[in-house]
Amino acid sequence: MKDRSGLLKRLELKEYPQPEVWSLRHPILLCHGFGAIGSLVKPSPLHDPCMWMREHGLWAFAPNIVPYAPIEVRARSWARIITELSQRHSIAKFNVIAHSMGGLDMRYALAHLGIEKKIASLTTIATPHKGTYLADFVRSTPEVLSERIGDIVDWFADNVYIKERNDAFGSVEQLTRTYVQEHFNPSTSEPTNIPLFSYSAAVGKGTNDPLNPVFLFQNNLIHEKEGPNDSFVSVESAKWGEHLETIRLSHLNQINVQVGTKEAKKRYLEFWTSLVQHLKSRGL
Question: pTM of the predicted model, to two decimals?
Fold first, then answer.
């Protein structure tokens, strides 16, 4: 047989060129975090991992809710969406995967809004379960400046998402370490019959993984107070329930925003693949 290296080897047809088909017991609902950065470059902040899952045959949803609002307001939006999707598609339960503030929203919804019968599992990714010093720092900004910035952000958000009123500065208050640890956590009971998983993340200072220079200041700021972090949330703050892994992706890389290198994109896809495989291994 002739040597098939080179061009012919690269042109060799795979018998099954399509992506591997994944299967889970329950559909996935992806809950995005604070802000609308992701929505500026894609239909929703978690649209990319959602489409990655659909490409592999999973039933997954990544809706938009109000980007800048208090936890209880955002939680009511997720509860409404869960009810709507379950009725529209006859879905009994969801595997919920929540990024950043979305994890606090879902914890509130489970504790206060009576949705636990609709949830098969909750996985949080870089959620500030103990708050974040970044929010403390933003709250320390002079009031005149912070109010002006808040008004601009709210004006923008009210025009891109018209179903709810936004309150950027008020919602930042709920991400401070004092609020989460002294108010939110004590008043938010954890479900006892739902599997609870978490992923933390760390890049930049204290790691061997680079970070977009735009986020170096806040990465160093958080590191000084809380240790390794993903430029928004520290590793220690993100640990909750059964902590599965500290991933090597920045906060925005986790949702395929600001993925600047082939290595980061590879880690992004590997992470979401491993998350799904973990749910499968747990029979969810």
Answer: 0.89
